[in-house]
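Below is a filled-in request sheet from our internal design queue. Each sheet records the structural input a requester submitted and the sequence that came back. We keep these sheets so that new team members can see what a complete request looks like end to end.

REQUESTER: design group, bay 2
PRIORITY: normal
MODE: inverse folding
CHAIN LENGTH: 268
BACKBONE (tokenized):
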């Protein structure tokens, strides 16, 4: 009887969660978004911080385009070339769920759409590329059948663009083109982009890429600076707790933006 009740509860939760979805977030970029926390010697050790525990109010869109309860590692079936671990996504979603009782975007279920792939440069995300098309396809699928509204795209990428100076110099223009193209193709002209400014890089032109990220003045683009975050021994990937803290900071940036929009609308 207990097992049958549990099965029924899971089915009902998944059905209601999809139909009652409120906020959808796209997670895109490269390895620090996909997550390398708790990956040691190429293996994920399975230790999940409290801030990243599963929550029935948080779903993820799998590689097979099925909604399921979100669990770490979020990108395991997306960023398949490397071992994935803890990233900022679930810490972000749990913080949004925890905080939205204050009246910002309350109700419904949070849906996460993992799209990040490690080692990718910004020009690999350009309009018409495989990564771009997959992101657009997954994002559009997430909104099918009244599945909810995409509230923001969380973007953490650029480490691979620090190797060649020409890539670092071109980053600003390439990122702006990506933002305008993705907003247009998703038919979301006011789509919020929350971009992470680099904490590390694969090459020596980190500051050039960071300057482009911090200097982005496009409307609806917000930046969260990861500089100073603790890194793993490779001096490239964030530690588990750095990923958790970043996720929480991304959530606060999103909630502050929504609160501002809500208050602005009321004043008008």
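RETURNED SEQUENCE:
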């Amino acid at each position: 009887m207990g097992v049958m009740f549990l099965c029924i509860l899971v089915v009902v939760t998944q059905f209601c969660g999809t139909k009652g979805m409120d906020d959808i977030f796209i997670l895109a970029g490269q390895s620090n978004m996909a997550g390398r926390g708790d990956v040691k010697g190429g293996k994920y050790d399975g230790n999940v911080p409290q801030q990243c525990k599963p929550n029935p109010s948080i779903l993820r869109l799998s590689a097979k385009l099925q909604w399921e309860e979100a669990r770490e590692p979020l990108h395991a079936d997306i960023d398949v070339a490397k071992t994935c671990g803890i990233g900022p996504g679930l810490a972000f979603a749990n913080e949004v769920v925890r905080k939205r009782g204050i009246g910002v975007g309350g109700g419904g279920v949070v849906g996460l759409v993992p799209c990040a792939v490690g080692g990718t440069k910004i020009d690999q995300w350009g309009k018409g590329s495989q990564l771009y098309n997959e992101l657009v396809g997954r994002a559009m699928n997430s909104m099918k059948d009244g599945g909810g509204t995409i509230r923001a795209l969380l973007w953490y990428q650029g480490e691979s663009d620090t190797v060649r100076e020409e890539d670092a110099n071109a980053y600003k223009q390439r990122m702006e083109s990506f933002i305008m193209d993705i907003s247009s193709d998703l038919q979301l002209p006011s789509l919020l982009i929350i971009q992470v400014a680099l904490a590390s890089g694969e090459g020596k032109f980190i500051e050039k890429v960071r300057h482009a990220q911090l200097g982005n003045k496009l409307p609806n683009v917000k930046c969260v600076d990861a500089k100073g975050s603790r890194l793993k021994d490779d001096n490239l990937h964030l530690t588990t707790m750095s990923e958790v803290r970043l996720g929480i900071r991304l959530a606060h940036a999103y909630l502050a933006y929504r609160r501002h929009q809500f208050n602005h609308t009321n004043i008008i």
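SHEET NOTES:
- The two ends are 55 Å apart (CA to CA).
- Residues 240-267 form the longest helix (28 residues).
FILED BY: M.R.
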